[in-house]
UniProtKB/TrEMBL annotation, chain A:
<keyword id="KW-0812">Transmembrane</keyword>
<feature type="transmembrane region" description="Helical">
    <location>
        <begin position="272"/>
        <end position="298"/>
    </location>
</feature>
<keyword id="KW-1133">Transmembrane helix</keyword>
<keyword id="KW-0813">Transport</keyword>
<keyword id="KW-0472">Membrane</keyword>
<dbReference type="Pfam" id="PF00528">
    <property type="entry name" value="BPD_transp_1"/>
</dbReference>
<dbReference type="GO" id="GO:0005886">
    <property type="term" value="C:plasma membrane"/>
</dbReference>
<feature type="transmembrane region" description="Helical">
    <location>
        <begin position="229"/>
        <end position="252"/>
    </location>
</feature>
<keyword id="KW-1003">Cell membrane</keyword>
From TrEMBL, chain B:
<dbReference type="InterPro" id="IPR003439">
    <property type="entry name" value="ABC_transporter-like_ATP-bd"/>
</dbReference>
<keyword id="KW-0067">ATP-binding</keyword>
<keyword id="KW-0997">Cell inner membrane</keyword>
<dbReference type="Pfam" id="PF08352">
    <property type="entry name" value="oligo_HPY"/>
</dbReference>
<protein>
    <recommendedName>
        <fullName>Glutathione import ATP-binding protein GsiA</fullName>
        <ecNumber>7.4.2.10</ecNumber>
    </recommendedName>
</protein>
<dbReference type="GO" id="GO:0055085">
    <property type="term" value="P:transmembrane transport"/>
</dbReference>
<dbReference type="InterPro" id="IPR003593">
    <property type="entry name" value="AAA+_ATPase"/>
</dbReference>
<dbReference type="GO" id="GO:0005524">
    <property type="term" value="F:ATP binding"/>
</dbReference>
<keyword id="KW-0547">Nucleotide-binding</keyword>
Length: 304, 574
């Protein structure tokens, strides 16, 4: 029992340090892009030198970089993400409005991917002489060879333009399917291999000797022992989703975090870029931490 | 008990099982016929590769899981005397599934890997009951508890929530048996169910199977390589070799008058583990007489070797497990000292500590007067010439990518003792000495049989003309007939070269044939040490007695007498 608390405690602590380190890194990376928001605004609005100075002062851009960093970190710790110069709104507001779309897209894609992968891999083990083993390879090769943005464009061509089955803007189904297929392709092959391996274990022979049918044997006896593979890969894939959703949001005009990130980068909107980048980095760290804990707790050998 | 009738519960006729590889087909079982009579215990006995396990797996068509194919034959199964016979070879999957686990159930060799690590043992037992009797969850759970009580698993209520890895090997096998008995099968097939267990645990499991059979009247097909186990358990015996049946008889008749030479060989190998010693083992060195005049070759005093125990969290381990806990002993030149004990007794750690392959925590080890524990690395390496080790797994201790020649030559090369033609001569001489023809020396380990591999290991150990050889379970992985040959070789070498052996084994039967003295280890301590015959005929320690009693005696009459004498044991027809 105490072992479990120690595990969770150390993981949380390590993750917090990691996010802090990345926040610092992000802060400086953002400032590598030439030109700040005042430059952009003055090109558009033709501000005088004096007005530019004043704006910089207001935004704190005239202070030294370390000073700016410290102010930003302190504010963030207090829950203040700052004000978006570009959109004239609190950054927190922008983020909370964009977040549900991204979360919905990511979780829908993930569930579709997991269901596809487990379904196909299990079917391929239950019916080894059917078309399912070939499907395992097909889906796997698809996800390796086909970048999601290409698949997205193809999907738009096929389902939106030619077949006319669905609208382009605000479409959630098509991007979820495209990312889901990509996710499935990454899990299905290793899962299938692991299931085949697990199927040769002596305890599977015991299960056959008990008179169980193939489906029960695969679901109850083989799959639980292969779930660690799925969990280990899920962590990797969930972090990949963070990137995948950005492309799809941009392509399908979905008002999510990805779209917000792109717009704020184009607008040199430091507070928003920083907030979004820290959020994305933080979620990757969080996913890994959770997966690490789940994998440990799932192992019956650590359940004592 | 009503005894056996002539009504067979299962009849295999002309059964032939093959395994197809990419380019060739191996015949594992070559047209055998036998039958299991209702209510009897039939034992199929044979050495590795005889096809006995394949036969067991073929009966429920489980052999197909491993790529085996039943080419010809019939397996007629009659669940009760009145049911019409059913040919299992031609039965469809549905019929087989209904039979498996209900009418015919199996117990396998490795209890740990035969239980699913992801489910509790209670769930795994309940699953069979639910599948075949359609009872609800609560009832299945109640039945699981009752079954675990029936196989004498202590604390059954709590144990059903355990995962397999939380149980000992003996407890796991009891769970497997409970699972097999769940639906009151008419036939129980047990494939080497006690081979992976310690001898005292084995005795408990054999008793359990015998009692349960007497209670339920089920038929038992018992697969084993151990003639001692056969004598204890079987009514009739089928002897298999190279996929064929060479002999079949009642157990008493088979042991009294074995017909086939192979059966005689098996019996000879097994009965050697009785009281008689190999003639070669008569101590020749003349130093064994207690407190002999010569100084001991090896002196061990208060030796302690411990391993850190891992604790949860990120704290460093603070506690230690004492694998060897204050052991003192002497070995005299030319003597064979055997150390026996069960798994976890610390006997292997003792052997490794003496060679300093693991670092002892405290104590003293002197080889011919030199303090081994005080030596620095280079001196230790020089001293190791005089102490060599032979391990249990001959395949694992030979490098698969080097020829037999280079394996034997390596110690000579490392110590800079010989090269060129001299080296070749020495290696060939050593190989010849252990019975490996010199034209085989250019081959790689996989081309040798298990017995030959162990001969290579012995030749390698002998290359440096050591004084002391530590043999750690050196013959345990070998079949009985091969084991006898390798032991014979070791004894010959001892006589000719004046070797001294520290012979580590779990098998007090083997040890008894060859050793001058026996030391018994239990939980890291040496609980008894004395002349072999004295220890075996009049053991002073309670644990030694238990160990000796647990060894199956390859004599049906004797083992049955013993059982009748034991209180609560079940009598069997003479």
């Amino acid at each position: 029992m105490t072992g479990r608390f120690v595990l969770i405690g150390t993981t949380v602590l390590r993750s917090a340090f990691l996010v802090l380190g990345m926040a610092v890194l992000i802060f400086f990376l953002v400032r590598i892009i030439p030109g700040d928001v005042v430059d952009l605004v003055s090109i558009e609005g033709g501000l005088t030198e004096e007005a530019q100075q004043q704006l910089r002062q207001e935004l704190g851009l005239d202070r030294s970089k370390p000073e700016q960093l410290l102010i930003w970190l302190t504010n963030m710790a207090e829950g203040d993400l700052g004000l978006s110069v570009r959109f004239q709104r609190p950054v927190a507001d922008l983020v909370t409005r964009a977040l549900p779309t991204t979360l919905a897209l990511a979780s829908l894609s993930f569930v579709i991917g997991l269901a596809l992968a487990i379904g196909i891999a299990v079917a391929a083990v239950i019916w080894p002489r059917s078309a399912f083993p070939a499907l395992v390879n097909a889906v796997n090769v698809w996800s390796i060879a086909m970048p999601t943005f290409c698949a997205g464009i193809l999907g738009i061509l096929l389902f939106v333009l030619w077949l006319g089955w669905m609208p382009l803007l605000g479409n959630m189904v098509l991007p979820s399917l495209i990312i889901g297929l990509d996710v499935a392709g990454q899990i299905v092959k290793p899962l299938h291999e692991d299931l085949k391996e697990a199927a040769t274990a002596p305890y599977i022979r015991t299960a056959h000797a008990k008179g169980l049918d193939r489906a029960t044997i695969v679901w109850r006896h083989i799959l639980p022992n292969s779930l660690s593979v799925v969990i280990a890969l899920s962590g990797l894939i969930a972090t990949g989703l963070v990137g995948g959703t950005i492309t799809m949001e941009v392509l399908f005009g979905l008002p999510g975090i990805g779209k917000l990130a792109l717009d704020s980068v184009l607008g040199r909107d430091y507070p928003t870029i920083q907030a979004v980048a820290v959020l994305l980095a933080g979620s990757v760290v969080a996913i890994n931490a959770v997966m690490g804990i789940v994998a440990r707790l799932f192992d019956p050998k650590l359940k004592t | 008990m009503t005894g056996t009738s002539d009504d067979p519960i299962l009849t295999a006729e002309n059964l032939r099982v093959t395994f197809a590889d990419r380019d060739r087909t191996t015949v594992a079982v070559d047209g055998i016929s036998f039958s299991v009579r209702r209510g009897e215990t039939l034992s199929i006995v044979g050495e590795s590769g005889s096809g006995k396990s394949v036969t067991a797996l073929a009966l429920l068509r489980l052999v197909e899981l491993g790529g085996g194919r039943i080419e010809t034959g019939t397996i007629l199964f009659k669940e009760t005397p009145d049911t019409p016979p059913l040919d299992l070879v031609r039965a469809d999957r549905q019929t087989l599934r209904d039979l498996r686990g209900r009418a015919v159930s199996m117990v396998f060799q490795e209890p740990m890997s035969s239980l699913n690590p992801a489910h509790t043992v209670g769930d795994q037992i309940a699953e069979v009951v639910r599948k075949h009797e359609g009872v609800d969850k609560a009832e299945a759970r109640r039945r699981a508890v009752a079954l675990l009580q029936r196989v004498h698993l202590p604390d059954a209520d709590r144990r059903i929530k355990s995962y397999p890895h939380e149980l000992s090997g003996g407890m796991q096998q009891r769970v497997m048996i409970a699972m097999a008995l769940a639906c009151k099968p008419a036939l129980l097939i047990a494939d080497e169910p006690t081979t992976a267990l310690d001898v005292t645990i084995q005795a408990g499991i054999l008793d359990l199977i015998r009692d349960l059979k007497a209670e339920t009247g089920m038929s038992v097909l018992f697969i084993t390589h151990d003639m001692g186990v056969v004598a204890e358990l079987a009514d009739r015996v089928v002897v298999m070799r190279h996929g064929r049946i060479v002999e079949e008889n009642d157990v008493a008749a088979l042991f009294r008058a074995p017909q086939h030479p192979y059966t005689r060989q098996l019996l000879a190998a097994a009965t050697m583990s009785g009281a008689r010693r190999l003639p070669a083992a008569v101590s020749t060195a003349g130093v064994v007489e207690a407190g002999g005049t010569k100084a001991p070759l090896l002196e061990v005093r208060d030796l302690v070797t411990q391993y850190p125990v891992k604790t949860a969290g990120f704290k460093r381990a603070k506690t230690h497990f004492r694998a060897v806990d204050g052991v003192s002993l002497d070995i005299h030149p030319g003597e064979i000292l055997a150390i026996v004990g069960e798994s976890g007794s610390g006997k292997s750690t003792l052997g490794k500590s003496i060679l300093r392959l693991v670092e002892p925590a405290s104590g003293e080890i002197r080889l011919a007067g030199t303090d081994i524990l005080g030596l620095k690395r280079p001196d230790l390496r020089r001293l190791r010439r005089h102490m060599q080790m032979v391990f249990q797994d001959p395949f694992g201790s030979l490098n698969p990518r080097r020829t037999a020649f280079s394996q034997i030559a390596e110690p000579l090369v490392i110590h800079g003792i010989a090269k060129g033609a001299d080296l070749a001569n020495r290696v060939e001489g050593l190989a010849k000495r252990v019975g490996i023809p010199s034209d085989m020396l250019s081959r790689y380990p996989h081309a040798f049989s298990g017995g030959q591999r162990q001969r290579l290991c012995i030749a390698r150990a002998l290359a440096l003309s050591p004084k002391l050889i530590v043999a750690d379970e050196a013959v345990s992985a070998l079949d009985a007939s091969i084991r006898a040959q390798v032991l014979e070789l070791m004894l010959e070498l001892q006589r000719e070269m004046g070797l001294t052996y520290l012979f580590i084994s779990h098998d007090i039967g083997v040890v008894r044939q060859i050793s001058d003295r026996i030391g018994v280890m239990y939980r890291g301590k040496l609980v008894e040490l004395g002349e072999t015959e004295a220890v075996c005929s009049a053991p002073a320690d309670a644990y030694t007695r238990k160990l000796l009693e647990a060894v199956p005696v390859a004599d049906p009459a004797a083992s049955r007498r013993m059982r009748r004498a034991a209180p609560g044991a079940v009598g069997l027809p003479a």
